[in-house]
Amino acid sequence: MGVINPPPATLLPAIHRRYSTRVFSPRNVSKEQIEHIFHAARWAASSSNEQPWHFIVAARDRDPEGHTRIGSTLVPGNAWALTAPVLGISVARTTFLRNGRHNPYYKHDTGAAMALAALQAVEDGLNLRQMGGFDAAKAAEVLEIPEGNEAVAAFALGYPETVEAPAERQRKLIEDVLFGGKFGQPLV
Ligand SMILES: Cc1cc2nc3c(=O)[nH]c(=O)nc-3n(C[C@H](O)[C@H](O)[C@H](O)COP(=O)(O)O)c2cc1C
Predict the structure, then answer these.
(1) Scanning 89, 99, 116, 125, which has its CA 20 to 30 A from the CA of 14?
(2) Nearest-CA residue for atom 7 of ligand 1
(3) Is the per-residue pLDDT at 165 higher than 90?
(4) Pocket of ligand 1 from Cβ distances under 6 Å
(5) Distance CA 113, CA 111 (A)
(6) Residue 13: its pLDDT value, please?
(7) Whose CA is nearest to atom 30 of ligand 1?
(8) Assigned CATH topology for domain 19-164
(9) Residues in CB range of 123: below 8 A, 6 or more apart
(10) What is the pLDDT of residue 20?
(11) Can you tell me which atom of ligand 1 is nearest the CA of 81?
């Protein structure tokens, strides 16, 4: 999986502070706060500026049925997320609006948007953990996702119980992921 190697101190503070928690405070998250985080997602880059993403989000205090509906799509291993005050699913349109052709970047771009949402969440004092452990077919059904769109990932959002990222986080080494002119070749 990698080694314990903290990021360079000079990276963006939000990159430093971002991590994925499983332990949320019961504090509710306002609609305005959720909107602020997804404004960041809206400003992600995307192929042909297609913006293939949609985000279905439910705060337990204001939309308990929606929260339960999204929670019902999670695999048992993600039952921890049911305690999060906000649950969501990212959805992506699989074809380009302009010509109807398959968009090979639909998940790539939606993931990029979620990455920005996670960074903005940290900046705003919250935490966002993405989850692949959910049933996309069930999500399509219970969330009434229109044909031509796919549920990409689930996420839990809220104020974290502990703000500090855990010290033991691991990453692959830079030379194992950053190459030069060919795959596997060292960067010069
Ligand atoms: C696409 C995606 C799917 C993930 N699926 C799950 C999941 O099903 N359950 C979970 O607890 N965490 C999940 N995670 C969180 C990762 O485990 C976490 O991001 C990774 O361990 C790195 O830790 P960090 O986010 O704290 O840096 C997922 C993250 C991403 C981006």
Answers:
(1) 89
(2) 131
(3) no
(4) 19-20, 78, 129-133, 153, 169
(5) 5
(6) 93
(7) 130
(8) NADH Oxidase (3.40.109)
(9) 14
(10) 96
(11) 11
